[in-house]
Amino acid sequence: KHTNANANNVSSQSGSTGKLECEVEPENQQQQQVFLRKQGLRWSELLGEDFHWCRRRKPVKPVAVIETPTVSQTAASYSRNVLAIILGGGAGSRLYPLTKKRAKPAVPIGGAYRLIDVPMSNCINSGISKIYILTQFNSTSLNRHLTRAYNFGNSIRFGGDGFVEILAATQTPTPGGKDWFQGTADAVRRYAWLLESVKIRQVEDIVILSGDHLYRMDYMKFVQKHRDTDADITVAAIPCDEKRAGDFGLMKIDATGRINDFAEKPKGEALEQMKVDTTILGLSPDEAEEKPYIASMGIYVFKKDALIELLNEKMPTANDFGSEIIPAAAEDMRVQAYLFNDYWEDIGTMKSFFEANLALAQHPPRFEFYDALNPIFTSPRFLPPAKVQNCQVTDSIISHGAMLEDCEVENAIIGLRSRVGKGVKIIDAMLMGADYYESEEVREKLLSENQVPIGIGDNTVIQNAICDKNCRVGQNCAIVNSGGVEEANLEEDGIYIRSGIVTI
Q1: pTM of the model
Q2: DSSP-derived 3-state class of residue 213
Q3: For residue 85, how many other CB atoms are within 10 A of its CB?
């Protein structure tokens, strides 16, 4: 088949079919001949009459290209009027010595993460892009991590108005403004003027979060429940049995889920009086019978106007949300409970921190960092994969950049850049890893000078212990609490024991 150079798509092969494109389709043979003459063709040149006339399509020029946003417009617009405030906590004395040089939310967990990554990731996965973090003690490490991991830049990903800002304790000319934060409510009150600023004028609801909990939660479901009930305050609650109930602040609710009573760590008869019908919040009858108590998670949603009124007008001297603001507000404001029936752990003590970490290596784990739809984010480090040579590893997590050789690891967390020598046994332990590598030359020089390089030396045994970052443990050591000591302060020797857990 050949096409005439003067007419597109016109076949010159006898008996074939083709088409002639024109602006206006000819209605009769005379119009067809006129069109052909304009194209330099004669009717007789077309060998056959089986041709189809059609209108030429006008070219369409694209005006703009629209890319699909990473966060859906519906979710982004829905959460645009929500602000999150993450409380960095106090001195973290119950986690000492892990909080000796870092804030509690900056304590490493799970081999590669920090505690602050949990609420931050929950916010991002929920579409909440306006985030304040209140800090006070040892905040340098926390500030560095937040800057590296959660720099939203110009916030294009969240529509241009997202931010992550650190609000440190500072002195002000207001009454009491030269003191440290006195509690959770006092910390938010010191920055209450920000809640009325033009920058967050669209915000209607404020989520108050803690920086030392381990859980995965969609905060917008929490906020939606708050809005559906037209509550002034909504408190997140977990159902619990009698064994755990005495360790938490408990709440009682009416038939609508409205909170009408509180008790802080009740025992005996007081505990019995705090039982509630948890089917009201959505539990099945069997679950409700097993877990007849609801405990506050220390997570709240406030209407912005209600929060400002409580902090500045109604209770200007109250320092804590859980023990002061919430119980007093329940007397004349609508305070609702929101049930969270999933894994949640308060990482407030050395024992809970240690057990929560080791539980991550169980099969199956109660909490899973590996979730493609709702990942836990952290700072990118660009480290090589872990290097494991001739090792026996059971129920453990080994982080990237770690190097293990001819050792045994059982029920343990091996952190970033960890170095574990030959013949080492690590059982029920957590190595937090290191902030940097030591070159082979440096390591050999240290050993030649009878000093200890970073990592765990050959033929060492570590059991029921935590080795903090950049820890140096020599060869042929045994870090085992064989005497069953519960509490000991040997900080000058680099050893601290809390709840029977040895920390190096």
Answers
A1: 0.80
A2: strand
A3: 23
